[in-house]
Each structure stands twice: as structure tokens, then as C-alpha cells.
Task: structure prediction
Amino acid sequence: MTPLATVVSGPRARLFACFLRLGTQQAGPLRLHTGASLAAKNYYEVLVLGGGSGGITMAARMKRRVGAENVAVVEPSERHFYQPIWTLVGAGAKQLSSSGRPTASVIPSGVEWIKARVIELNPDKNCIHTDNGKEISYKYLIIALGIQLDYEKIKGLPEGFEHPKIGSNYSVKTVEKTWKALQDFKEGNAVFTFPNTPVKCAGAPQKIMYLSEAYFRKTGKRSKANIIFNTSLGAIFGVKKYAAALQEIIQERDLTVNYKQNLIEVRADRQEAVFENLDKPGETQVISYEMLHVTPPMSPPDVLKTSPVADAAGWVDVDKETLQHKKYPNVFGIGDCTNLPTSKTAAAVAAQSGILDRTISLVMKNQTPTKKYDGYTSCPLVTGYNRVILAEFDYNAQPLETFPFDQSKERLSMYLMKADLMPFLYWNMMLRGYWGGPAILRKLFHLGMS
Ligand SMILES: Cc1cc2nc3c(=O)[nH]c(=O)nc-3n(C[C@H](O)[C@H](O)[C@H](O)COP(=O)(O)OP(=O)(O)OC[C@H]3O[C@@H](n4cnc5c(N)ncnc54)[C@H](O)[C@@H]3O)c2cc1C
Result:
């Protein structure tokens, strides 16, 4: 895959980016784990389900609380991915290889990696079952299983990805196809979708639209492209301040947004996408495309949907302030698999990890959890190859901004943060349990101003 030439301008900006990249690259080998355990024990004080963003972060924090030998992570994948960078991979601004590392290298040293898939949770007996026939018991359980991608709920997918002109930034298997489709684009409709389900990073389906528009402009194809965002939602973004800024960009750049349009079928051999009008069920529209970016329907992982820890919709049923399970006090949830009523992002996971750490430490001492999660989440809305609007907000969809300037403006500094600083923070601080979100920075900046 040929990456797009670096578009960040100015020697200072480049130096800063280089420094961060260097740090990111060098961080891995220092903490190589010895690999998955073959002779795992069958009891752990803290058992973590899922070794993604939330699982690894909590394993690192729990290691400090109870000692590495008392913590285990159940995770089947050989590779751990920093998914937020896939937005830039799909647009050719980053290499896919920069987004992943061996799982062995991110499991905190001394913590057991149980390389298996959880197939059953039995919280009444304090144990879980794995697909390799093991039963593992625990004193405390942290559920961090993420959100499931349901491409097959769209007729014609996932097999449609075998054809050209179609991609999806949401999966490691299809993200590079987005970049290929962008490069192959000649003229016609470039169509971007948003499904009729909860999703992770609700901004990502439209970020790739802005990047595509910028790419078409750069390569002289803009006048031949009709750019369409067909979304199941009724608004462009859930927070008014940022929605207003995005609407201006949409008008300025002549992008078409159609609301309440849900992708139900892809006829990839004919380059056609079929949408249902959610306001008039049964009414469909067929759009021919020269490029299609699919954001798939998503749902709680199957293993949770029917388990006792799930709410009626299948999400882990936790207290929205403490992250403790509502029925099982020794069970906790973090991240995309929970029913926390906030936008599902890695930034939210970072903020949740600090709260959950505190909650568990008090529960371990038979005390009542006191620290309260305010729903902090963040979405760096990439609006071009060197521009980002940094949306940060809480449970009430009210802005909760870190920096002492208007974050609804597009900024190069925020792009550098998204592209280089955040990956650095993720690999070196968050996964090691040292990053609980920007609340401290926010206080510092805002104190300085008052
Ligand atoms: C294209 C894209 C762009 C994004 N952009 C941003 C952004 O700009 N900013 C941001 O903050 N966030 C962004 N995100 C979202 C962010 O990546 C997720 O919200 C975050 O990774 C959630 O962490 P998690 O631990 O809940 O889930 P994950 O990190 O997905 O981890 C879940 C883990 O559970 C494992 N698992 C699943 N089922 C089982 C099972 N049965 N047994 C054992 N293990 C299992 C999986 O293998 C996985 O490792 C983006 C995501 C995507 C895809």
C-alpha cells in the first residue's frame, strides 16, 4: 500500500511528529511478554475478559493492586490493534502495520495470558468457560469484550468485499480496501454509510468522508465526485456545538447528507447499494457507487447477549457512575461492551479505567465506591489531512473540553494530537495503566485561565 505523502506542513510540526513516532516505535520491545500460557491456573483473584483497550489497561492497573501472578487476561487474538488510527489508514495517511502489535507485547509482564475465547459466563458460580474446555474461577471479574461487528446483517456482505470499490475502516481485513477504492476512484458517487445500531466511535463513519473529499481535491478529481453520507441517524452529530461546525463544513464542501437512510444490501458485482428509508419502512432506494465505505451494524458480543450479566439489550449492565455490575458486586464492566450511556471510544475507556481502578480498590476493602464517571468521551473529528475538530463531551452531551480554546474550530495542532500524540499515549501510558484521561490537564488549563 502506498501511503499518501506526508501532508503536515512546517518544520516544527514535522519535528514534533518525528519525535513522537520515534517514541512510539521504541516502546514495544522493552516489555515483551513471554507469550500465552499453556499451563494456566484455574483461579485468579482478578480475571479480565478481553485483551483490547479496556482489558489490557485494567490488567496493568490490577497488576499494581494485587500482583501480576494474581491477574489473568482471556484473549484469543495474536495481535492487539490501536483501532482509532484506522481512520487514517483508510485514507492512506498511515500504514496498517503501525496500528498493531503482538498481544504478547502488551500483556503486562507476569500477568497470565489465557489465549482462548470466552464462551460462557457463570457469575452465580464466579467462573467462566473457554472454547478450549477450561473452567476458570475468579474473585473479581472485569468484562472488556468490546463490540461485535455484524457485516453479515447487510445482504451481500461480507463476501461483497471481494469486489473492488468497497471498503470499511472498521475491520483490519477491510481497512486497506478503503484506501484502494479511494485511489481507484475516477468519477461518480462516493457513498458513506452509518448503520441503525449503536457503533464505536460514532464520528468515524463521517471522518472518512471528509478525508476522501480532501483526497479528491488533492488529486484533481473533486469536480467528478458526488459525495453522499447516508446515515440512519436524524442528525450529523449528537453534540450541538460540534454539529453546527460540521454543518458549515458540509455546506462549504458541497457534501450531500441524507438522514434516516439505512444500508440493507450491497450488490458489489453491480456497484449498487440499497438503502431503506427508516421513516417509511419498506421504502428502498438503490444508489450506484464508484466507491462505497461501509460502517457495519454492531451489537454486544454473542457470548454476552444471553448471559446473566447482560441487560435486556445484551450489554453488560453496570452502574453508570462506578462501573460496578448492578447485580453482581464482584463483576465490573469497561468500554464498548457496557451499557454506559456515552459514546463508545478509546478515550472513554481511558477515563473509565481511572474510575474503575478506584471502584475496585474500594470494593476490595469492603468499602463503597465513591468516584463517579461523568461519561467523558472524545471524538477527534478528522476533517482533512491536517485538520481536526476535537469533540469532548459528557453524559449530557455537553462539551467537556480540555484545551483553553474553541475546540469546534478545525486545527492542525489537534490533527497532530490525533495522528501522533494519541498513539504514543496509548501504547506507552494507557496500556500501562498510567493514563486515565485528560481530566487533570483540563483542571490545570482552566485553573490557569481563572
Ligand atoms: C475506525 C475506528 C475509528 C475509531 N476512532 C476512535 C477515535 O478517534 N478515538 C477513540 O477514542 N476511539 C476510537 N475508536 C474506538 C475505539 O477503538 C474503541 O472504542 C476501543 O477500542 C474500545 O475498547 P474495548 O476494550 O471496549 O474494546 P476492544 O479494544 O475492541 O477490545 C475487545 C477485545 O475483546 C476480545 N474478545 C471479543 N470476544 C471475545 C471472547 N468471546 N473471548 C475473549 N476475548 C474476546 C477481542 O478480541 C478484543 O481484543 C475507533 C474505532 C474504529 C474501529
Q: What stands out?
A: The chain is about 30% helix and 20% strand. The pocket of flavin-adenine dinucleotide is lined by residues 49-55, 74-77, 83-84, 86-87, 117-118, 144-146, 169-170, 200-201, 204, 301, 303, 335-337, 344-347, 349, 378, 380 (CB under 6 Å). The longest strand covers residues 135-143.
